[in-house]
Amino acid sequence: MRTRLINEGPERTFALILDSGDEVVSALEDFAAHQQLEASRLTAIGAFMRCTLGYFDWEKKDYLRIPVDEQVEVLSLVGDITLDEGKPKLHAHVVVGRRDGSTRGGHLLEAHVRPTLEVLLTDSPAHLARAFDPESGLALIRPGA
Amino acid sequence: MRTRLINEGPERTFALILDSGDEVVSALEDFAAHQQLEASRLTAIGAFMRCTLGYFDWEKKDYLRIPVDEQVEVLSLVGDITLDEGKPKLHAHVVVGRRDGSTRGGHLLEAHVRPTLEVLLTDSPAHLARAFDPESGLALIRPGA
Amino acid sequence: MRTRLINEGPERTFALILDSGDEVVSALEDFAAHQQLEASRLTAIGAFMRCTLGYFDWEKKDYLRIPVDEQVEVLSLVGDITLDEGKPKLHAHVVVGRRDGSTRGGHLLEAHVRPTLEVLLTDSPAHLARAFDPESGLALIRPGA
User: Fold this and answer.
1) Would the pLDDT of B18 be above 70?
2) Which of A15, A128, B95, B100 could join A39 in a cystine, given CB atoms 3.0 to 4.6 angstroms apart?
3) pLDDT tens readout for residues A93-132
4) Architecture category of domain A2-135 in CATH
């Protein structure tokens, strides 16, 4: 485990309210680029009209795509925004709820909002950067980078 | 997407520990009214003796009720408290875990705690208000309101 | 419900990045002991190579163990670190996602990371202590203690 104190003073918190048709990954990364966010964390609830989730296949070192082509409640969306090669990168995982109360979940690859997604984002005055990890093939956060 | 900086200074954080028999929605809204909370976010874990979840039916523009009549772990409860017609309104989604590890989830309509629910609530010195959205029939957060 | 304001000033936030093979409960409790954390809250996402979840059996007053012996996405890990008999105690619940997008969840008993777990932990300059609750047989947070 590697650790880093990323804040001990005031932080900024934003309410981001996404509307019908907004795509979550691009909307949040565009916001982060505009606001120059480099070490943010977020939670969200709301609903999607459809989304694509991912499961990281450890053998193939790639994400399997899991399409969810129905209106779902967003039960939890938890994630962070860090820097990957100098650009803001959203890493978020999501659990969605179906009509019968059953759930699906995975890495958030793409999601279209309907009618709302309520995101509470807290930004620390630090930066956290990702670096390529040869073992997994993923860009992982390196707190000291 | 509409965004608003809701805080850049110190915030208040409360630990709210609900006990057996407490009903979650009413307990949190009563607390918010008493403390005059107008832009809060919260996460919680614990357990329910029973709860009623909701799924928003986009065709009917109403919540289907999904009763969960068994003791369940509260795996995640994520939400916010904002103002709706001047009164504090809890909007929370929950994932619960059953005896076999399977899960159910939805919009939190009602839940009775057993034996505990540990809520960590952070309040921003701002206010966020809801307004009626004609397309969905729901009261959605309008950050500029 | 019992409530307590645990902070109204600056707080410390840590990024804790766990690596392949790290065990989550021991890593977080060791960190908390080292940093003398007494009232922290955390969220995390990432992936486990395997984990053991728990469901509290209200009749037996004990946790049923639910082994998950496969690589899973950590969709949400929500919890707190408080004091139990003077030592830091992690209480966390987790939802994990399987290869087909289905989910499992429970009280976090043990989990081994692969390749990463990204924990954002916020510590309040207060302390929250647990006390034995005769009705459940569990150590529950007592905000006034």
Assistant:
1) yes
2) A128
3) 999 999 999 999 999 999 999 999 999 999 988 889 999 9
4) 2-Layer Sandwich (3.30)
User: Which pTM was predicted?
Assistant: 0.96
Contacts of C31 in chain A (CB under 8 A): 1, 3
Cα radius of gyration (chain A): 16
Nearest Cα of chain C lies from the Cα of B50 at a distance, in angstroms, of 13
| Chain B: touching chains (3 or more CB pairs < 8 Å) | A, C
Neighbour-count burial of B63, counting CB atoms closer than 10 A to its CB (0-12 exposed, 13-18 middle, 19+ buried)? middle
Look at A92 and C14 and tell me if their CB atoms are within 8 Å: no
A98 contacts B103? CB cut-off 8 A: no
% of residues, chain B, pLDDT over 70: 99
For A36-83, write each residue's pLDDT tens digit. 998 999 999 999 999 999 999 999 999 999 999 999 999 999 999 999
User: Do the Cβ atoms of A103 and B107 come within 8 Å?
Assistant: no
Cβ neighbors of A100 (< 8 A, separation 6 or more) are: B55, B66
Interface check for C8 against chain A (CB to CB < 8 A): the answer is: no
Residue of C nearest to B32 (CA): C3
CA distance A95 to C78: 13
Burial class (CB in 10 A: 0-12, 13-18, 19+), A56: buried
Residue A145 at interface with chain C, using a CB cutoff of 8 Å: no
